[in-house]
Amino acid sequence: MLNAKHCNVVGDRLIMGRQRLQLKINAKYRHESLPKLKCSVKPLPVSLSLGKPMRIRTALPFLLLSTLVSLSSSELSHAEVAVEDFDSIKLYTLKNQSGMTVKLTNYGATITSIIVPDREGNMVDVALGYNRVEGYLNAVDKPYFGAIVGRYANRIAGGQFTLDGKTYTLATNNGENHLHGGITGFDKVVWNAKPMEGDGWSGIELNYKAKDMEEGYPGNLDVKVTYRLTNANELVIDYFATTDKKTPVNLTQHTYFNLKGEGEDTILDHELMINATKYTPVDQGLIPTGELHAVAGTPFDFTSPKPIGKEIDQENQQLQFGLGYDHNFVLDRSEQQEGEIALAAKVVEPQSGRVLEVRTTEPGVQFYSGNFLNGRLKGKSGKTYQHRGGFCLETQHYPDSPNQPSFPSTILNPGEEYRSTTTFKFTTQ
Fold first, then answer.
1. Which of the chain's termini has less CB crowding within 10 Å, N or C?
2. Where does the sequence pass through the membrane (predicted)?
3. Can you say which residues are annotated as belonging to the binding site for beta-D-galactose?
């Protein structure tokens, strides 16, 4: 893979509106022993049907011209800049030497596709999602497919929290509770984006500035998320944030996986291991009670691999509250491992042999078994996403931490930097 020492991409001409995007790209690459590469762009005709009016906040003053340079490992004399344009919304493609491909958009910093091989080398898309931006804008059940969620991922009880004696009121968009940052969370805004390149990886950097009191949260929050695809079939996600006022921050990645392929049956036979001997039990509103319960002797014991569906329908109050698994697991780590990246979970799909390993610096992971998928949503392959047709492993701090003093703090202070890393690594067995 080309190790590009210098990359300069400049857009020369742009016709705005819902017309075909027309542009020219001049790109220059310099490398000690490699010739200058030519870059080309293929403009794509697109249509944007928004359906119901929706408020979309954007940090972009005009149409964002931002492209991903995709380099072929076998052909160093040519590279393509692939752009799909929905006004300021773009779709980017990352591809490594072994053919693993990740597509993502700056709308919600959303992963739309992850294509990986099985044990025979057959490539399929294992991430649930849509082919067009309309699907993300108009999804009837708002499932957060593939998105970055925040300013606070997961739930905050009653849509409020108190900080330094002041109570802040948030949207109650999940029954009486606040979920995933509110009505217009980070999954529903347009991020600034630019390509990145390094030794053995390519990626995208995304930036968004959440304003003071946006969705009820205090402080102007500058957020940066980077996605890097390595030649080891590892997708590395780094999160950064700074604030000018004290504020809770909890960011996560909300991809739904089905290692058989998106739209292919359920995930109940996937074998799951979670590196956690405790979890946080919840009430009927899926708000943690504040306790930490041992998983031993319960359906929540994934310390040894077992099929997701093995005990999912057992008579168990916690499973009834979640309609399956929708719970935060407290990851096992020593004091020396605090803040270090460590194994959180491993999933094996027996038929294809695909394996997903999740590592994180976070103290918890929310395991969600696709309980609210019900066949109403149709994905990229044209197949409907059936009940429990995908699972999420959302690395995070614990739900409702701003209201739970015994939980690890999620408060970010001015002068501090929020940092978090999660990796999704794909192999076969």
1. C
2. none
3. 154-155, 254-256, 326
Q: Residues annotated as binding site?
A: 154-155, 254-256, 326
Domain with CATH 2.70.98.10 in the chain: 155-177+252-428
Output the pTM of the full model. Answer: 0.81
Q: Which two tokens stand for residue 53?
A: 């009016």
Give pLDDT tens digits for 317-376.
999 999 999 999 999 987 767 778 999 999 999 999 999 999 999 999 999 999 999 999
Q: Report whether the peptide linkage leading into residue 151 is cis, meaning its omega lies within 30 degrees of zero.
A: yes
Which stretches within 286-420 are classed as H helix? 317-322
Catalytically annotated residues: 254, 394
d(CA 276, CA 52): 42
Cα dist. 231→2, 94, 304 in Å?
12, 11, 29
Question: Is the CATH number 3.30.70.360 carried by domain 155-177+252-428?
Answer: no
Structure confidence at residue 336 (pLDDT) = 66
